[in-house]
Amino acid sequence: MKPDRRLLVAVLAPGLALALWLGLGVLLLGATLGPAQRAAVRQAIGPLLPSHGVLAVGWWLAGAALAAWAAHRLYRANVVAPARLANAARVLAGDASAPELPVQGGSAMRGIASAVNSLAAQRGTLTAEMARLVDEASRSVAEQRDQLAALMSELDHAVVVCNPDGRILLYNGRMRDLSRRLSPHGAEVIGLGRSIHALIDRAPIDHALETVERRIARGGDPSAAAAKFVTATEAGHLLQVSLAPVRPAAAEGAAAVTGFVLLADDITGEQAARARRDAELLRLTESTRASVASLQAALEMLDLPDLGLEDRERFLSVLRDEVAAMGARLDDLAESSLLDVMTRWPLQEMLGADLTAAAQRRIVAATGQPVAAHDAAGELWLNVDSFGLIQALTFLALRVAAVHPEPRMWLRLAQAGGTRANLDLGWHAPEGARLPATLAGVQSEPIDLDGTTTPVSVRDMAERHGGEVWLERDRKSGQPFFRFLLPLAASEAAAPAAAWPSRPEFYDFDLFAAGAGGALDEQPLSAVPCTVFDTETTGLDPGGGDEIIQIGAVRIVNGRILRSECIDQLIDPGRSIPEAGIPIHGIHPHMVRGKPTIAEALPAFHAFTEGSVLVGHNVAFDMRFLKLKEARTGLRFDQPLLDTLLLSSIVHPDEASHGLDAIAERLGVEVSGRHTALGDAVATAELFVRLIPLLAQQGIVTLGQARAASSTSQFARLEY
Amino acid sequence: MGIKVLIADDEPNIVVSLEFMLKREGYEVIVARDGNEALEAIRRERPNLVLLDGMMPGLSGFGVCEAVRADLSLGGTRILMLTAKGREADVARGVGAGADAYVIKPFSTRDLMQQVRDMLA
Asked: In chain B, whose CA is at the least distance from the CA of A313?
């Protein structure tokens, strides 16, 4: 209300001043007159007052109104307009992309506005030029960084890089998938700036770091220093983790570790399979021992010469019984999946067509004979050791070419049913000819190519694939071919890797420099990790039964909005959604059916916000909904709070509106997707990031200062 | 009063042969089908020798062994563990628990009988 009061004063003051001036004039006149003259004047004017006094007051009123009008114009021109101009100029000073100042008002004002605009334009070109230079200089760095990030995302392992405190600087998609599988509520525990200890205990990591540091201190090769450990997660998974220290490249000797890289593998399934296999093997050994003992003892009894007929029959039945039991055990073993989990050679997924094409090229090069490739199978993905397999095929082809002058060889890949494929290498043998003996046992001979002999045979190669190889003749044509039985890749593995948003922000190396904790209040706003959130609700009254139906949240780390680390969750309110609200939030009852309830969704949100400042627009409204759930869910949201509405009122106290759209317009932020929780949260985050430098101009730099200023701002006293 | 031998094993097919063999040698044979029964029989019958299987329902052979060695009044009982548990760790455990001899199944009956005779000599 401040501006209005000032305006009122400005408008009324001239009238009052005029009245005062006139009154003073009359008093002065009275003072100069003698008593007789004064009486004469009173006598002369007194009777006129009732009839003509109105005229004098009217005259004064007209003067006052005229003066008020002039004062109003002057106030608008010289107080309001400059204040606006100053606000806009401050925005422009803080943010070069803010809109230009409006050129309006008196000629002087217009002059100032265009001067400021031209200054801003000059700064713009300067900044652009500087940015171009900086950009050029840092492009190669960025390129390397992007290459590293790309490499990371392609890696087969889950990788995460942390600073010494365990704060995450970089992670890849596999790591994110892994953490999602492992976290107790499916909550997002991996994110830039978050602590790795939410996923992996601090103790084994500290121990591994210590081991590595001691190894380096003892003079071990720093580049080869890595420690391995296996740890169990909260949800009972087994993780095999390999830890390597990160040290400044320039540092010599035992320099301090500035961070560490973790490679993690979920070995739960593998370990369970191995344990099962071991147990099964032990059981099998022991039961076989017991059976053989019974058999042997019974047999030795049967050998005794003085055995009666009845005893003889008893021992014979022991033999029958044990043989039957051993047979049944073997059948069980064959039917169990035990034999499927046997250790295999490391194999890679490969498109079948690529394998046949590569084999074809290699055979043609080695034998000088044409090879036809029939790929009848379409998109077949195989699990193969392609190098070894192609060597085996080439070796066979060379042998074939050695006995047939014109073999006209062919390659064919076809699905064999189930999880197997047939890879055939055939040739055209002369009609009715018998197969040369040299080809019959060739599968078992060691592969020798280019004069080098390996101890590995073609059969070994097939067995590496858990498959087989044999020589066959086509039933109809009688033509011979070698057939490899190979494993198909698991269908889920062949599917393209999970799709990620266009440019996920998986790294932030600035966190390397981040200080070790310190009270949040002491840290600059731009360095404090923030969770910006918004909720959609069934109505405005949580105490009266209104519920949250959508939560949207996004994180800000080091002043950067991490759009790929967000929450966008519909929630079943367990009550009806009033029709009136649907046009605003666009959430219909069918959309929340089957979604988690607030009690189910809050743990994930709570974990998401951990260790960060909560930011919202008119955040007290959302907090009231969350606080009401505290008793029921046991989840306390006691982080520091910031409200963009309050921050905006600190930056622009003279503006009347601090609505999301009004602020966005003032700060030149384009807002899209409003009125979904995530859309509003992202818009709020954009505003918050722009408000930080404007607050800094007013000396509000740290979180503590921002909170103190918020609590004394004019809107803070409005009770929500 | 003959020499008493207790066979504690839950596998009837091995018990048949062991029982036949020991009786043929002239010993008095008692049979127990599980660990608890074996312990009871040892306390009641005071056998000179126990042929003890490692894996039995209820109390395992190792458990029986420990219980017997813990009871000083049963100090004279000789124990031969006769079991399919063949890992080094199993042998160590059996000997540690107080077995006088540890024989891994399968075994030659002739060698076993010789060992029994030696232990009872």
From this structure: B16
